[in-house]
Amino acid sequence: MGSITFSHVFKQYKGESRPAVNDFHLSIEEGEFLVLVGPSGCGKSTTLRMLAGLEEISAGELYIDDKFMNYVSPKDRDIAMVFQNYALYPNLSVYDNIALGLKLRKTPKYDIELRVNRVAKVLEISHLLDRKPSQLSGGQKQRVALGRAIAREPQVFLMDEPLSNLDAKLRAQTRAELIKIQSDLKRTTVYVTHDQVEAMTMGTRIVVMKDGVIQQVAPPKQLYDEPANLFVAGFIGSPQMNFIEGNVTLEEGRYYFSNKRMKLLLPRSYDSSFEKLTRAVRNVILGVRPENVLLKPFEPDDDDENGFAMSVVQMTEVTGADSYVYVTVGDSKVIARTDPESIYLKDDKPAIGFNMGKLHFFDVSTGVSLAAGGDGG
Ligand SMILES: Nc1ncnc2c1ncn2[C@@H]1O[C@H](COP(=O)(O)OP(=O)(O)O)[C@@H](O)[C@H]1O
Ligand SMILES: [Mg+2]
């Protein structure tokens, strides 16, 4: 129970020139924790609201457990939704807020009591049941909102940025609890966030959206290691992946990446990807994550031959466990993650190199990934 299928779903708001959701086509498995992530305005909430029945579907079909849902009213969908602003009833006690959905469904009184007490215990809000929402902190309100959704024991949970009003510490804590609750209850959950860290830590599968269009659907690690295009590569990961423009050339049977400042001999593991390319798409953007950028003191024999170029340090950011060194290489800005023991000061000129097995190459004109992590990881 609780599998969901979107078949080529579109949403076009009246008077808008382009669809808010454009050909959303995806199946969600029973029990899955699916996260929709993307920048503000990319169509996440609209997608969720169509699933809840709060927004009409302009074209395409929606199925829950193979039942056609397009015209089924929200109350008949066996779905509970948790919103960013909690949406609690101010005049009702915590107990009654949690119990309300059950009362409306004519659940027997003893059963309501049992369920409310059970979720209150799980969420550690048993001592708050007599209070009114105005007597609660933000974190407590969000627990009550979650409790109300959980008590109903629906087939599907929908959550739209439920943690975004909490401070960082409480957000991390509630995030961990949500993961645990979801894995205990094993109910299909569709969770919306604009925060890529939240997406990466919570989702078993992540859908990255931009301008109403799905960019990639993958488990977190795959999204990080094999982003399908420049947008996903830049959106997932912090600090973000470095991008350097250049060309892929073939010389005496070996592939090189080069621009005015660097010429890198690429490992043979990339060969099969580059063999498929026509000359026209050999204008590329090289992508490399900060943890795969190497800095070291420049030595006389550091040149093209061994894959190092000279860089200039702009600034260093110390976070505690790591340092991030911002350098320029010609026109390109690059961030390197280094251990905090190696100290780089502004205008230092270290040699910069890359972990050659961990490079990404994207088509300059389309942004599509041409090759990633030649060593397979
Ligand atoms: N009721 C509405 N009428 C017209 N346009 C809307 C409405 N709701 C959302 N939009 C537009 O649809 C797009 C997607 O919005 P939304 O789904 O809320 O994005 P997200 O949740 O990813 O921030 C945005 O361009 C937004 O301005
Ligand atoms: Mg939204």
Q: Class of the largest domain, according to the CATH hierarchy? A: Alpha Beta
- How many helices does DSSP assign? 9
Number of DSSP-assigned strands: 22
User: Per DSSP, what share of the residues sits in E-state strands of 2 or more residues?
Assistant: 25-35%
The total domain count is: 2
| CATH H-tier superfamily of the largest domain | P-loop containing nucleotide triphosphate hydrolases
Low-confidence stretches: none
What's the N-to-C terminus distance?
35 Å
InterPro entries: AAA+_ATPase, ABC_transporter-like_ATP-bd, ABC_transporter-like_CS, ABC_transpr_MalK-like, ABC_transpr_MalK/UgpC-like, Mo/tungstate-bd_C_term_dom, NA-bd_OB-fold, OB_MalK-like
GO molecular function, one term: ATP binding
GO cellular component, one term: ATP-binding cassette (ABC) transporter complex, substrate-binding subunit-containing
Protein name: ABC transporter ATP-binding protein
